[in-house]
Design goal:
CATH superfamily of the largest domain: ANL, N-terminal domain
Number of domains: 2
CATH class of the largest domain: Alpha Beta
Helix content: 25-40%
Bound molecules: 5'-O-[hydroxy(phenylacetyl)phosphoryl]adenosine
Number of helices: 12
Shape: globular
Distance between the termini: 51 Å
CATH architecture of the largest domain: 3-Layer(aba) Sandwich
Structural class: alpha/beta
CATH topology of the largest domain: Rossmann fold
């Protein structure tokens, strides 16, 4: 249901033309500030022959060169900071799963705005000051815990900052404290749901959970359905990345058909990752984001590597900010198997629709001659099939056929015992890459 409080109603429902005028004004001042103050961006803009005065309409954004994670690495740790160091009040550091860590900095103003964006996201999901929210994203260098925390505090909700891990204690807290909102990764939510059942509790009767604030990794509609069946009625998607602030860049409204990206803070573009060409609405490509309301570390045309598309149609919820589609995955996580492009999230989508399967799976990447190949290991639900070999073979065939019908790819499936695959308390690692070993 739509939230009854119109918390940030004016800016969320500002008319498109005014929103675009505001974006242009803020874009120009961001470019001006980087051009004048930041040696690295200043040089990049001069090399591309772009002056702040060249930015006269939003389309002029395409004249500006992209920023990539490499730009952050080259300038490690503080080279992209665009304010005096004494104005910086916080650093977060990304874990660097794909290379060296990257540092992001915030001024007091940035923290204030970041809190506001997260408050908007939570409000949009229907979270109210009367709610009790358990934040089971990691607190610390990762932005998930603190980002959602500040948003919930701004909204006035009661926070349980449980951080990730210690799942049984999480569940006890939920029960004893009457927790109504759970914020964590969707893979951790699945693990929590499984543990609740193992503890002999019925989430619908014994817990008061209402809303899920799930993000930080790709998840599919079929996982949403599982979470609705086994944990709570309203699971919402929230998106963000440290480089842009952390969580709170975009989130779903009650329509749950795409995530509103806050356009008074970010300009979103979708590009062809190979050519850099800007694509039109509804065309799938890489999400590129320009921050237009940041002090410490503004970024121009940051290549997120996340695959999505842009929807500019008016949303029935009344918000005018554009929507991005659910993130399919990162383009560097895309697997190319016998000529077919596969995102792990597509495999998850198929597996989570099959009643007999558990929530945990692993994609194992191997080499078959010069080509990559993959195999899927997936847990079967307890008592879902008999021990008879024939039943197991039938289920294996069914899963392989379902994968084939969606991906057009023959994949070998290995059904494994319940509880035998690793569980995640944060971002799940679903792909096991054994290509170097085969
Ligand atoms: O994951 C920030 C965050 C925390 C978002 C909590 C939502 C909730 P990073 O660790 O920098 O920041 O990782 C960012 O995670 O580029 C995406 O690839 C992925 N990601 C984040 N949210 C989603 C989502 C946080 N809702 C990277 N769906 C991003 C799919 C997501 N992928």
């Amino acid at each position: 249901m739509e939230s009854q409080t119109s918390f940030y109603s004016d800016i969320e429902r500002i008319n498109r033309k005014e929103l675009e005028d505001l974006q242009l004004k803020k874009l120009r001042s961001t470019v001006e500030s980087l051009y004048d103050k930041n040696p690295y961006f200043g040089r990049k803009l001069r090399q591309a022959q772009v002056k702040p005065s060249d930015i006269n309409k939003l389309e002029d954004l395409s004249k500006i060169p992209f920023t990539t994670k490499d730009d952050l690495r080259i300038n490690y740790p503080t080279g992209l900071i665009n304010v005096e160091m004494d104005k910086v009040v916080r650093f977060h550091v990304s874990s660097g799963t794909t290379g060296d860590p990257t540092v992001v900095a915030y001024t007091k103003y940035d923290i204030d705005k970041w809190s506001e964006l997260n408050a908007r996201c939570l409000n949009m999901m229907g979270v109210k000051k009367e709610d009790v929210i358990q934040i089971a994203y990691g607190y610390g260098l990762f932005t998930g815990g603190l980002g959602i925390h500040y948003g919930a505090e701004r909204l006035g909700a009661a926070i349980i900052p449980s951080s990730a891990g210690n799942t049984k204690r999480q569940i006890k807290l939920m029960k004893d404290m009457g927790v109504t909102v759970l914020a964590c990764t969707p893979s951790y939510a699945l693990y929590i749901a499984e543990t609740i059942i193992q503890e002999g509790l019925n989430p619908k009767k014994d817990l008061k959970l209402r809303i899920g604030v799930f993000g930080a990794e790709p998840w599919s509609e079929s996982v949403r359905k599982r979470l609705m069946d086994n944990l709570l009625p309203e699971p919402y998607d929230i998106y963000g990345l440290s480089e842009l602030c952390g969580p709170g860049v975009a989130a779903e409204c009650h329509i749950k058909d795409g995530l509103h990206i806050w356009a008074d803070h970010f300009i979103a573009e979708i590009i062809d990752p190979k050519t850099g060409e800007v694509l039109g609405p509804d065309e799938e490509g890489e999400l590129v984001v320009t921050t237009i309301d940041k002090e410490a570390m503004p970024l121009l045309r940051y290549r997120t590597r996340d695959v999505s598309c842009l929807n500019l149609e008016p949303c029935p919820c009344g918000r005018t900010h554009p929507k991005i589609s659910r993130i399919k995955g990162r383009n560097d996580d895309m697997l190319k198997i016998r000529g077919v492009n596969v995102f792990p999230s597509q495999i998850e989508y198929v597996l989570a629709r099959i009643e007999e399967l558990g929530d945990q799976y692993q994609i194992i990447l191997t080499k078959s001659g010069p080509l990559d190949d993959l195999k899927v290991k997936v847990e079967v639900k307890p008592n879902a099939v008999s021990d008879k070999p024939w039943d197991i073979i039938q289920l294996k065939k069914k899963v392989e056929n379902e994968i084939y019908s969606v991906l057009n790819l023959h994949v070998e499936v290995d059904l494994v015992e319940p509880g035998s695959l690793p569980r995640s308390e944060g971002k799940a690692k679903r792909v096991l890459d054994l290509r170097g070993l085969s």
